[in-house]
């Protein structure tokens, strides 16, 4: 499971039918130094997350099984909205959680 | 799930029989800064995607189960054609979506 | 399986119901040179681990099956608390295991 | 799925019994710039591939299920021999496919 | 599957019960240039491997299924002891296999 910030959405009219109605969000992984990376992943929202929020993401078959459909086209899912992070001895990370 | 651009095709007459008739496309992963990387993945097309398009790709057992064959030789599948990306505050990414 | 140090906790009131009651810990992976990296992962605790401890982590479907729930939102789990590491010929790693 | 070049073989008399009789090949992943990387993976051959050939490789549970044995010690398998690659606008990649 | 050298052992009295009695070995992945990397993985031994040996490792659900226990806390397993590597045209790799 990893932490990331939602930075955008994907518009894809032509897609696997299991994705119809799903919110496809672009998530930027976060490091311990709080600096933004240039990598990104696309994850399906399952908790009502919105742009700018810090979220918890699961990957792989875990994400697919979450959907309840054994052949859904999902390998990453947002499963939590992060309100706070308690990091001992790592002062820079406080600005991770910036909502909306 | 990740975003990438289709940059080529693979010709492989000798292959696992589950791949016969499949379109094997070379996909270049995209970063948040919109710069092309030098890495690449091969993915099976499931949505009629073509060269130059930006696509959504799933990996691992999710991709295999999509094929409906429990022993197919697939661990990456194109599951969506991206028409637009809405990235808040990241201006450079607009040139990601460049079709054919 | 990988080794890491627990450096913090995640507070996420809105989350998948399978995570309610779970301790979500931030784990910093360790390298052979003992230097801290800036990457991090979130893992569910299953052995009573606490902040500052060096732990053994499993990922992917292995972690999910550990929970005993076929659709739990878990893809990383702490499965051991490391008391000592015996590294032949790699002197710098001794300071890995620093408790509490 | 990824493309790589076969650069060697592994001799391992002591191994999991599911690997007895399998050809264990060392595969060097290829990038879009055609430059060799220093990373390598070991994959089981399933298509009669030989040294110097460019091949298509699948990883993870996909590779294991290909073997038809639910507990085989395989997480990477060669599933195609690449004869040609058609890359639009990327001229350097032509020398990828160099046989034996 | 990947090649690595065993460089140490993990002592973890508090651990998932499926790991009791297992040998937890620290394995350093090897590159094509034969140089040691600073990354490491922990793998469960299944073939009687010992310190300093070059081994073949499988990861993910493949490793878990090898244990024969559907909920064991294993996502990496040593499945072969490498006696020799035949690398065409890559002279530096000969010193990979250094036992004990």
Walk me through the structure.
5 copies of one chain form a homopentamer. Chain A is mostly beta strands and 100 residues long. Residues 91-100 of chain A have low confidence and may be disordered. Chain A has one helix at 61-66, and strands at residues 2-11, 14-15, 24-29, 41-45, 54-59, 76-81, 84-87. Chain A is built from 1 helix and 7 strands. The longest helix of chain A is centred in the middle third of the chain and has 6 residues, at 61-66. The A-B interface holds A 7-16, 19, 24, 26, 28, 36-44, 51-52, 60-61, 63-64, 70-76 and B 1-3, 30-33, 35, 46-48, 56, 58-63, 65-66, 68, 77, 79-90, 93. Strand 1 of chain D pairs antiparallel with strand 7 (84-87) of chain E.
Write the layout of secondary structure elements.
Five copies of one chain form a homopentamer.
Chain A: E1 2-11, E2 14-15, E3 24-29, E4 41-45, E5 54-59, H1 61-66, E6 76-81, E7 84-87
Parallel strand pairs in A: 4-6
Antiparallel strand pairs in A: 1-3, 1-5, 3-4, 5-6
At a glance:
The structure is a homopentamer. Helices cover about 5% and strands about 40% of the residues of chain A.
Number of strands of chain A: 7
- Seen as an oligomer or otherwise, the chain set is homopentamer
Largest sheet strand order of chain A: 1-3-4-6-5
The helix count of chain A comes to 1
Task: Describe the main β-sheet of chain A briefly.
Answer: 5 strands, mixed, barrel
